[in-house]
Amino acid sequence: NAGVTQTPKFQVLKTGQSMTLQCAQDMNHEYMSWYRQDPGMGLRLIHYSVGAGITDQGEVPNGYNVSRSTTEDFPLRLLSAAPSQTSVYFCASSYSMGGSGSGNTIYFGEGSWLTVV
Amino acid sequence: AQKVTQAQTEISVVEKEDVTLDCVYETRDTTYYLFWYKQPPSGELVFLIRRNSFDEQNEISGRYSWNFQKSTSSFNFTITASQVVDSAVYFCALRKRGANNLFFGTGTRLTVIP
Hints:
heterodimer; A: mainly beta; seven-stranded mixed β-sheet; four-stranded antiparallel β-sheet; 0% helix; globular; B: mainly beta; six-stranded mixed β-sheet
């Protein structure tokens, strides 16, 4: 049972380069999202999706694109990397608005450490 | 608007001491869900507990216990007889009913000294 899988785990980019962080889940969750974690700021929501073909912006969407062509995958694209995007990125998934039980639990991937120089 | 406050930035305790991590939240919703996650030095986020707003029973799981009090909007986490393996950053988070996204506190870094 893989859960939420993120790749790569570590990446160094030069300013202006583009890249895609991959995220896949095998739990048939409708909801997927990307957060970034910065020192002293907790985790902040970048983009999210409530199902295939549906995406929306979170708290800090600028500089990132997402798409959701399948239920399983939710890649995050950095179009032109900037040093301000140096961060740890977490992908998460859950059942969408899953009632009062365990469906409400949001599960996270292991994180992707990105450095932009 | 939702807000989660973890006022303790860093805590250090000596092994076997008890320690309580504080979490205070703000929400106008009557139904919501509270979570604690652990982030060990390896970096992943590990789910610890979920609590529904309509269930104020305290919960104990081994050395871990959680005290949820709606009257003070708090959801505190106590580790009894702390161990070095408890050293981590702990996050409290809130999710509104009918919404998917989590609002996180800024985390508390716990260091257990052997």
